[in-house]
Write a structure and sequence with these properties.
alpha+beta; 4-stranded parallel β-sheet; 9 helices; 24% strand
Amino acid sequence: MILAVTYPGDEHAAPLLDALARRGAEVAVLDTSELPRRGAVALAYGGSHTRQIRLDGRSPLEAERISAVWWRRPLPLRASRRLGRAHAAFAVRQAGDALMGFFALLERHALFVNHPWRGEMAGLKTFQLAIAERAALLVPATLVTSDPLEARAFLASCGRAGAVHKALHSSPADWRRARRVTPGDRARLGIIRHAPLILQRHIPGVDVRVTLVGDQVFAAEIDARRSSSPDDYRGVESQCRFAPCALPAKVERGLCRLRRDLGLVFGAADLRRSDDGSWYFLEMNPSGQWGFVEERTGQPITAALAELLARGDRGAFEPARDRSPG
């Protein structure tokens, strides 16, 4: 059985579930926001080995029957509305620990795409940039700081090329595109004392989105130079030109090593191909979107992911051991 940890509003869920159904795969869907208010977790030890997630009105999800897990941006757990705030917070903490215990039991036999703990670590931009450098990927001059003086010195070092700024971590409520640093931004640098940000030397060129599905690599160039957001194509995809592209062998090897070193099976990497032909790594999203690329290029990313999950070949994607940024 393949367990899809997703939610009804995920635009990628329906196409993937359809692709799995066409392969005859048995699939169950878990929306984590249904717990603990509409279900239960049961984990027995010391004799009985009942390990189940029980959702109201559905067959139990038994740990031993799950061969693969698609861990796709799960929603926060929610307690019963009948509980007060303090009791609800307590209930969610207890249910969360029990739920993570259930998934920890699957590590020995199930393929995770991606593993929740490794995916969370891999999503840290400050971590992945260090790992990318070790994978011999070219990284733009970058500074993460909450020191205004250091930030001003870095911006001065960027010269006429300028720099972009972006957040280390965003939620749907405070998401912003990466944007060019303006004179107004420079005048307000004092505010970063309250929250560090990422400053990165601006690289003129074309964006390249690389979706890694196991050992398969799908690369697509996204030309946003004539769009209303040339420094970040997100949200203006309809204004951009998409086309499949080939990666230099060194870049592809570096991305594959990066995926492995981050402990990922799936990843969506953003690169910038500069005007002089250099390829710069910007970031890797462990749960990145791919539907917009597939729609515009015809690359069979959903089919590749469905095939990977249906095979459930955990042995081919053993996590890296003793790998830390040097």
